[in-house]
Design a protein that fits this description.
The protein is built from 15 helices and 19 strands. With about 500 residues, it is an alpha+beta fold. The chain folds into two domains: about 350 residues, 3-Layer(bba) Sandwich (FAD/NAD(P)-binding domain); about 150 residues, Succinate dehydrogenase/fumarate reductase flavoprotein, catalytic domain (Flavocytochrome C3, Chain A, domain 1, Alpha-Beta Complex), CATH 3.90.700. The strands form five sheets. Strands 1, 2, 3, 6, 7, 8, 9, 18 and 19 form a nine-stranded mixed beta sheet that branches. Strands 13-14-16-15 form a four-stranded antiparallel beta sheet.
């Protein structure tokens, strides 16, 4: 059990105002009936607590970590709104309707329409709140989010601050401080919620948690699940995605607790098929979860490919100079284990720009003797044996590719950059593995953010928002600028502003 920390109005206002850390105090009264019991003090839970408190609500804010903020500690801090005051000040004409249409376009129509519609409608007021409270975007913002090989908005509405997610967290800490000082918000940290309290009719009445070895119950009119995803829970990740969590790059408390809470009362999940694995990274080792170690430049607009991308069957699976990253990502998702090797020979090594970003040729060569993700062999057959890919498949693939190079065209995948064949050893392979810091699978909710049971009926008094809904609900199977943080902030704020309080 992690150290429990607790804040109440008796703490000095001066120390609360900064909220650099939260100090230990007495256990909250279990006899209190809260208006809101919020499980997760992160991107969605914090604005829900703040705006509920401003209406006079009694709020219990619980988190397993020893600090508030959740993924804001690590996030890039990118948000988007159609119709913000920042846009108006720069003469940019935009609206929630246009923003919603672009969310659906960029998500390939796969984002949850209810979540996307709410986000678009609520985003302007949410971003204006943050701006008024002191968030300072970069000078040239908002922007469209345009990036090489990636689709973007048609209208500049995407913004972030120099300090990224921590800039938003600093603003929210300042907004949280007076609500905590008022005594309306009680913050219970280092506490993992173990279950929901349900009455005879199936309505949720509160939560169970263990505090200092004691099993306690906290009851409330509304229970909000805002616990984030499951990206740092290896067992849950493997169960939902079907591969190991190759890279542990997310917030440590992304353990999937919220999914367990919802399903324990009949809720169900969606979005497994919307997992995104990027285009693959070179990791520190084969002991997973590992960490990203180095980046191979796979963007053809930056470095045209000289190598082949080979799957476990020894086959290519996409043209290596495909300009759209979304197509490269989708192709990797169809490969066993989201795994492939970048294969080349000595002639390519000698002639091509070094593919590993910021490495010298000497650095690259040294890794083929020391690192498990780098393999060298004198023949293609030996390379296949060392990497575990199909030797016959690799030989046939290389023959076919070399013939395309000889003809200077006619590549079966439509590849245009055909500089050299793979003809003479030694041969080299670099293993790349697809991974993600987000969790695509999440809780199914209705347009009021009520958790739904499998029969389509809402679980009374139980709500969910933030990444616990799954990144698939906000991104579909693609990248939509600002659609991780903005839905959490905006819909969390809405729940705090609108759910009934009092008797």
């Amino acid at each position: 059990m992690k150290r429990r920390t607790f804040v109440q109005s008796a703490v000095a206002t001066a120390s609360i105002a900064a909220l650099p850390s939260l100090t230990r105090g007495a256990t909250p009264m279990t006899s209190t009936r809260w208006d809101f019991v919020i499980v997760g003090a992160g991107t969605a839970g914090l604005p829900a607590a703040i705006f509920a408190s401003r209406r006079g609500a009694r709020v219990l804010l619980i988190d397993a970590a020893d600090d508030v903020g959740g993924t804001l500690h690590l996030a890039n801090g990118q948000v988007a709104a159609g119709g913000s005051k920042l846009q108006a000040a720069k003469g940019i004409v935009d609206s929630p309707d246009v923003h919603f249409e672009e969310i659906m376009r960029l998500s390939n129509g796969l984002a949850d329409r209810n979540v996307a519609r709410l986000t678009a409608d609520l985003a302007p007021a949410t971003i204006n709140w943050l701006l008024d409270a002191g968030l300072k975007p970069l000078d040239d913002h908002p922007v469209t989010g345009d990036a090489v090989g990636r689709k973007a908005y048609n209208v500049p509405r995407y913004l972030w601050a120099k300090e990224e997610g921590k800039a938003i967290l600093a603003v929210i800490r300042r907004e949280l401080a007076p609500e905590v000082a008022s005594g309306r918000i009680t913050v219970q940290l280092g506490t993992r919620v173990s279950g929901l309290i349900v009455d005879a009719n199936g309505a949720v009445e509160g939560v169970r948690a263990q505090v200092d070895g004691k099993d306690l119950e906290f009851r409330g009119r509304h229970v909000l699940i805002t616990t984030g995803g499951y990206a740092m829970n290896p067992q849950r990740f493997q169960q939902l995605v079907g591969v190991p969590p190759y890279a542990g790059t997310s917030y440590p408390f992304q353990q999937g607790d919220g999914l367990d809470l919802a399903t324990s009362v009949g809720g169900y999940l969606r979005g497994q098929e919307l997992h995104r694995a990027g285009t693959g990274s070179i990791l520190t080792s084969e002991h997973f979860p590992a960490k990203p170690y180095a980046r191979f430049e796979k963007t053809p607009q930056v470095r045209a490919p000289w190598e082949l991308w080979i799957n476990d069957a020894g086959q290519r699976f996409i043209r290596e100079d495909e300009p759209l990253v979304v197509k490269r990502e989708a192709a990797l998702l169809r490969q066993p284990g989201f795994r492939y090797r970048i294969v080349f020979d000595q002639a390519i090594l000698d002639a091509a720009p070094i593919g590993v970003v910021n490495w010298t040729k000497e650095q690259l060569l040294s890794h083929f003797d020391t690192h498990s993700m780098f393999t060298r062999a004198e023949t293609l057959e030996q390379l296949a044996a060392k990497t575990g890919i199909d030797a016959a498949g690799l030989a046939a693939t290389v023959r076919e590719y070399n013939e395309s190079v000889r003809r200077r065209g006619g590549d079966p995948f439509g590849r245009e950059h055909l500089p050299l064949p793979l003809a003479k050893g030694p041969f080299y392979a670099i293993t790349l593995l697809g991974h993600s810091a987000t969790s695509s699978t999440g809780i199914v909710v209705d347009n009021q953010m009520r958790v739904l049971r499998g029969n389509g009926q809402p679980v009374p008094n139980l709500y969910a928002t933030g990444e616990v809904l799954g990144s698939g609900a906000t991104l579909g199977n693609a990248f939509v600028p600002g659609m991780m943080l903005t839905p959490a902030l905006a819909i969390g704020r809405m729940l705090g502003m609108t759910l009934p309080i009092g008797a």
